[in-house]
Amino acid sequence: MKRLGFIAILLLLIGTIWGQASLPFAYDAGKPTATLGLTHTGLGTDYSSSPKMKFDTTEDNLILFFTGTPDVLTFNIKWNKNTSEPRFPGNFELLESSNGIDYTTVQLYNSTTGTALPNGTVITETFTTLNPSTRYIKWLYTAKSNGNIAIGAISLTGISSSPSIIVLPNTLSSFSYGEGSGPSSEQSFMVSGMNLTENISITAPESYEISLTSGSDFTNSLNIPQLDGTVESTPVYVRLKSGLLTATYNSESIDLISAGAPSNAVICNGLVTSIPSENLFTGTDNNGWMTYSVSSNKNWTLGSDYFSINAYGGDVASEDYLISPVYNLDAYSNENISFNSVTQYTDITNPRVEFLYTDNYTGNPATTIWTPLTATWPESTSILSEVTNSGIISLTGVHGNNIRFAFKYTSSGTGSGTSSLWRIDDVILAGDPFTLPVELSSFNASFNVSNFVSINWTTQSEENMLGYYIHRNETDDLSSAIRINNEVISAHNQPTAQNYTHKDVELEKNTTYYYWLQSADLDGTTEFFGPVTVKTGSTTPDTPIIGLTTNLKKAYPNPFNPSTTISFDLVESSFVNIEVFNLKGQLVKTLVNRQVEAGNQSVVWNGLDNNSKPCTSGVYFYRMSAGKYQSTQKIIMMK
Q1: Rg over CA atoms, the chain
Q2: Which segment of 77-91, 139-153, 236-250, 319-333 scores lowest on mean pLDDT?
Q3: 337 with 429: CB under 8 angstroms?
Q4: 579: closest CA among 622, 614, 615?
Q5: How far apart are CA 390 and CA 203, in angstroms?
Q6: What distance in Å separates the CA atoms of residue 56 and residue 30, rounded to the nearest whole number?
Q7: Any idea what DSSP says for residue 14?
């Protein structure tokens, strides 16, 4: 009988402790004794007015156990202590759990974290991002210090019991690979369902494929079964299909449906470049990356498949760098870079790793001038969060053949809970190779009976060219040659054959001259051709001077800020119209609309529209019409 009585008492206690509250739920009293869904451990003597429940000792806690899907949680909280300190100095936590065993932190309150709790002030807290699978909410006095905490006016509303599909995140970006080298690296989203009557059906868009298994079994559609109306949180892996042509594959939708539930979707954005994307660091080896600790406290280390650094709880400030090898960005156009990162216990005062670059690494990152790059980083969390992709970071404004990237880690070193752990993986550099700027088919010089030298050259194609300079010497020595044209001879930048000529009149009789042609690209790189030789005073017949052709040239500089020059040639006097349009095809600015004489001409665009208002950064097109001739070129304003 004693045994049966014990069992009966035990069952009664379990029923009292784990009885579930229904939503919506509200409570504003002292220590709960017979309130369905509320239990506590060790709460102190109640206060006389709300908030009444007193947390007076380390490990004092209050647990709310409920049925339904949580929506909005509110409660009042107050720190009580005869002191002038502006914030609660201990540790008090709000936690959530789906099973009553494994809890994750929703909010931590202490001297630096969470809403400020001034002494004696009642604060109302509201939380709208509880996990849909949460069924337990816990308030816990983690570490007592200088006073007590009071809680009251608890309110928790619930979400309708209608069928629903939940996805997180609802956008995946930065899928990429070079044409011919796919598929892309995979990313993932989480899907769950509640109150379902049918399974969840997932369909991938044309350019993407999906799987329930990381690294394998990718397909166009999936089916996730529901059990008693529920689909537990399940990862779905996504990647950009192989075999795609060079293009952007943005705003493509992965659709999720279940009968009776509102449909949901995950939007995918990706890019296939015209050259293979280069994974600068795969995590399996360092690929030439190096580490440098300025503080000599912590440093980056190579993990099993990532680089990581951890100064959690450290009492010494850290400044540590993960530095790439040298990359030549002048060899590419449309460059971009991306990476994945994971963090835990992000430092409050120094909250993140910085992503930087330099074109002049000194050998010591502390003395190197770095430029920051904007990236997406993980949210601060007390647990090791999921992988966060940086997004596609444009490098079109980064130039040079001596570029290094770096991840700079800093930690305040103010003790446990203020430093952080970071992981970096899959640093992807992608871009389009520059085509040969100039293809030269002939280069010669001849002496004219009118006592000048005619220097002539023909190009078969030009791209991204600034123009040409000519150098002369009386010996075959380029290093001591002088440049004879003060102004650049502008390039036509056409894919078809172009002819050029230049007169050299400052000559001595009966002298042999050596000439070199220097081509100059818009990115600052140059190339020399020659030499060709000619002797003055010879009887070589005149070389005909090739005339101009009507031609719209590349703007320079491009990209520009705040102004750029657009040059053009006219073979004859013509009525010329030059207009600037935005990406939507809307007229922005009329630069020329008049009769123009034959010859080399130019016009400056100052970045203003027809209403004299500054234009925004972005891509624009300028179009020239002259008689039957028409041509359009692209230009970029970068502020």
Answers
A1: 35
A2: 319-333
A3: yes
A4: 622
A5: 26
A6: 14
A7: H
